[in-house]
Structures are given as C-alpha cells and as structure tokens.
C-alpha cells in the first residue's frame, strides 16, 4: 500500500503540495488527475524518493521512498532520461543489468504489441514512439508498485485506449499497484479503480471510480469537470 500522509512541499514561496493525504491500495490502479501545474509530477517524484517533502510522510509497504523502497517500485518519468545515443536495446540492457525483476519475455511481448524496434535511437523517435518506449521499459519490470507520469502523452487517442486496456489485461502483474498521472481522463476511466484529483496542490476529490459514477450518474470526466469548475469559482 502507498500511504500519503499530510504531505506538504513548497518551492520558494509556492506551496505545490498542500496537506495531502490518501492511500493507494494494493492491487489497484489509481488515476492521479489534475490540470497543468496541479502538482502531479511533484507528488510522483516524492513517492519515488526523488524529492523530499517539507512536512508529512509517504510510505510504500511501510518503507520510506528512495533506497528502502527502490526494489519494489518503478517510476517512469514524463521525460527522456537516456543518453542521446542510446537505442531502445541499450536502455533495456541497462535496466536488465540493474534490476533483478526485469522480465525478458514480457519485454519481447511488449516490443511486439507496441510495434517497437530495439534498434530505434530513443532521442530520434517521435513523441508517441518515445511514450511507448517508456511504457515498455516500465512494464517490463515486475515491480510491485508502478508510477507512470503522463504515460499516454503524445500517443494518439485511438492507440491510447488500446494500450490502456492492454496494460490491465495483459501486462499488469498480479497484485500490482499502479499510479497513473494523466490528463486523458476519458480514455483511461475504464481502467481506473480509484482517482485522486488535485488542484493547485490540494486534494479536491478522491474515491472509487464506479462508486463516484453511480452516485452521480455521470461520467468520470463530467464529475471531475464539475469539481474543477467549482474550485475555480
Ligand atoms: N523544481 C521546481 N522548482 C520550482 N517550482 C517547481 C519545481 N517543480 C515544479 N514546480 C512547480 O510546482 C507546481 C506543480 O508542478 P508539477 O510539475 O508537479 O505539476 P503537474 O500537475 O505535473 O503539471 P503538468 O500536468 O503540467 O505536468 C508548478 O507550479 C511548477 O511550476
């Protein structure tokens, strides 16, 4: 379980995470939703141990982010982290050398499904292809916790839906917990179990997607838009 407990983070004078608390239960897919600048990446980085909170705490199965939790968590950032000369095969080899949970057969399956070539130089690939490569590199590890920052950004809407569904049906590990930050609410609402909707660092709405939808008799996008409009008044 990932537990976020009264998390706070300020950059210079701006509070970008403000007294945030929620839980990502084991085996669930949680959508971290919010407009540009809401604080999604900051929160994911704090979960991954890449930045320190000013107040509050995050734990992953009771362990603090960073080194203690690294063996059970994969963080896939929304940017290129590879050297410009690296081919997809170089990045795959690197991760295989570093992580014991790299799964060769899953990587091969993902190469076929996402129609990727190992020979492609990552820096030279299109935006959509880079996004698919990031997904392959993240999903080929069998880690218990998976943090995906904007995994569908740059992928066309038709393919997005297909990939989102495949993540759940074909590529998720048993009991794996996935946190996905995204703006693409309509395309992913079918795969999400829970949502955490944030705005300017504050938590506006959290809950089970099916319960929220049946309580309000609306789509997830409509519910989130309503809450967002209300918060901006
Ligand atoms: N290192 C930093 N120094 C100063 N401010 C920062 C830093 N990183 C993020 N911020 C600010 O924190 C706020 C939240 O940024 P964050 O990247 O977490 O938002 P986001 O929800 O991921 O946005 P987007 O959807 O546009 O990617 C923004 O106002 C951003 O400018």
From TrEMBL:
Q: Which molecular function terms from Gene Ontology are attached?
A: ATP binding; ATP hydrolysis activity
Q: Is Zinc included in the keywords of this UniProt record?
A: no
- Please state every residue range assigned to the domain named ABC transporter: 2-225
Entries under CDD domains matching the protein: ABC_DR_subfamily_A (cd03230)
Superkingdom per UniProt: Bacteria
Protein's organism: Paenibacillus thalictri
Q: What is this protein called?
A: ABC transporter ATP-binding protein
Listed A to Z, the keywords are: ATP-binding, Nucleotide-binding
InterPro entries hit by this protein: AAA+_ATPase (IPR003593), ABC_transporter-like_ATP-bd (IPR003439), P-loop_NTPase (IPR027417)
């Amino acid at each position: 379980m990932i537990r976020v407990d009264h998390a706070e983070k300020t950059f210079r004078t701006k509070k970008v995470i403000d007294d945030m608390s929620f839980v990502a239960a084991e085996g669930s897919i949680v959508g971290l939703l919010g407009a540009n600048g809401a604080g999604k990446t900051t929160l994911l980085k704090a979960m991954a141990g890449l930045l320190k909170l000013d107040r509050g705490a995050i734990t992953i199965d009771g362990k603090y982010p960073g080194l203690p939790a690294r063996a059970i968590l994969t963080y896939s950032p929304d940017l290129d982290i590879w050297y410009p000369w690296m081919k997809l095969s170089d990045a795959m080899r690197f991760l295989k050398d570093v992580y014991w949970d790299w799964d060769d057969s899953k990587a091969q399956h993902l190469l076929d499904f996402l129609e990727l070539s190992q020979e492609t130089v990552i820096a030279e690939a299109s935006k959509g292809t880079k996004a698919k490569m990031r997904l392959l590199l993240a999903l080929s590890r069998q880690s218990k916790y998976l943090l995906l920052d904007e995994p569908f950004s740059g992928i066309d809407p038709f393919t997005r839906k297909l990939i989102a569904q495949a993540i759940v049906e074909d590529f998720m590990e048993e009991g794996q917990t996935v946190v996905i930050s995204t703006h693409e609410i309509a395309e992913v609402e079918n795969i999400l179990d829970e949502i955490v909707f944030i705005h300017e660092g504050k938590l506006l709405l959290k809950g089970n997607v099916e319960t929220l939808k049946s309580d309000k008799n609306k789509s997830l996008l409509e519910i989130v838009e309503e809450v967002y409009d209300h918060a901006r008044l």
